[in-house]
Amino acid sequence: MTKTILITGTSSGYGKATVELFLSRGWNVVATMRRPEAARFGGASARLRVLPLDVTDQGSIDALLEAAGPIDVLVNNAGIGGVGAFEAMPMSLVRQLFETNTIGVMAMCQAVIPQMRRRRSGILVNVTSSVTLGAFPLAAAYTGSKQAIEGFTGSLAHELAHFGIRAKLVEPGYAPTTRFGANAIVPVEELLPGEYADFARPILEALAAPAMTTTENDVAEAVWNAVRDDTGQLRFPAGPDAVALAQAR
Q1: Is residue 246 within 8 Å of 235, Cβ to Cβ?
Q2: Domain locations in the chain as residue ranges
Q3: N or C terminus of the chain with fewer C-beta within 10 Å?
Q4: What is the pLDDT of residues 86-113, one digit of tens each?
């Protein structure tokens, strides 16, 4: 029987690559995004449905699950970035980061768990970041929003194992085109007061020419490995830089 995976945040990047990988390997895929009319996936497939979702809106979550039907795997990939000096970061932006990256993930898990518990099977995959593997400057609030999901998922894995449900973490490394930097909701320049210029300059230069980077396919493959794993492994670093950080840790 063909299984169904629901993936959040699939308009680009990791989410889009994960949709395409699971389709290529024979799965039914429910791809979600705020504006499904903008969806662009490689090749048409009868096994793909694209549905609207705002993970910060409970009504949107409820409507999605009613439309989606039974889900075997949930991948919480939707997220936003925020880079800059914490001193200069408006609390409205901090709340926005946590609403999407933390509360949104928790809300999706809570909405899907009941059907999985009744079936006594299912997999939750929460995508965080390699900032959870090593302290990274100029990312304090973003790191906090992702670290919260690391602790949440570890605890959830224990309480849901009783019902045959597995919870996993995928920890992507740095990809210059992803939400962490290029897709941050406020440009980093607006969150760097002059007093931070000397401190920030070498960090931003390193980000512009990183020694190792993570690709979208690295993350999609890590999600695939997490879904297929039955050894009890919790964390799946994705990309050479994330793997190196995990090993050092």
Answers
A1: yes
A2: 4-248
A3: N
A4: 999 999 999 999 999 999 999 999 999 9
